Amino acid sequence: MSFITRGFGGRSRERDDRLPPGQTLVHDFPVLSAGPTPEVDTAEWELRIVTEGATHRWSWDEFNALPHEDVSTDIHCVTHWSKLGTSWRGVSLDTLFENVESQFDFVMAHSYGGYTTNVPLDELLNGQAWVVTEFDGEPLDPEHGGPARLIVPHLYFWKSAKWVRSLVMMPRDDPGFWEQNGYHIHGDPWQEERYW
Asked: What positions does the domain Oxidoreductase molybdopterin-binding occupy (predicted)?
């Protein structure tokens, strides 16, 4: 018996210099999640950055009052698909971390629904990561992480936590959900850092 998941059948054989090794170009947007899609009401949504000394909080309205950027980027999933030229809109982590002080160098992203993933802080700053609320000019669908998700497009897409609710500073690069289950601690698609 075979099992087919949307996004895994009929893959394109096109090649492109923007495709990392082992990746296949797709034109749809496959949906992969570690559990059920949480229902997140924007009236109760909150984003937090937690350091060793403080908690910085933004409500939905406060977050949407921050400067937003349009982001065009390629995304790469560890399951071998890549989608090129995706369009997002959101807030740069440079903006979110502007007044955050911490001695720690690592971040654990926590999601509504319980998912976690670890990322070094220096991989989130300097125009490398965003919390986004739109995809292709529309509000982000819940199945793709809406109302808000993290995107860290230079790493495999499991690092781009859906339904993000907090970024917690850590002194060590402790593994998150998939990293505890065999995925690489870092996840660079150009180095094929898929698994431990």
From this structure: 35-178
The conformation of residue 93, written as its DSSP 8-state character, comes to H
The domain 24-29+45-191 having CATH identifier 3.30.70.660: the answer here is no
Average pLDDT over every residue of 96-104: 97
Contact between residue 140 and residue 21 where contact means Cβ atoms under 8 Å apart: no
Span 56-98, pLDDT tens digits: 999 999 999 999 999 999 999 999 999 999 999 999 999 999 9
SS3 of residue 39 by DSSP = coil
Peptide bond preceding 147 in cis form (omega within 30 of 0): yes
Cα–Cα dist 7/81, whole Å: 8
User: What is d(CA 96, CA 59) in angstroms, rounded to the nearest whole number?
Assistant: 13
Task: Look at residue 129 in the predicted model and tell me its pLDDT.
Answer: 98
Angle (CA) 133-91-61 rounded to 5° is 65
Nearest to 84 by CA among 27, 32, 140: 27
For residue 15, the model assigns a pLDDT of 63
**Cβ 155 vs Cβ 186: under 8 Å:** yes
Domain map (residue ranges) of the chain: 24-29+45-191
Rounded distance, CA 148 to CA 66, Å?
Answer: 14
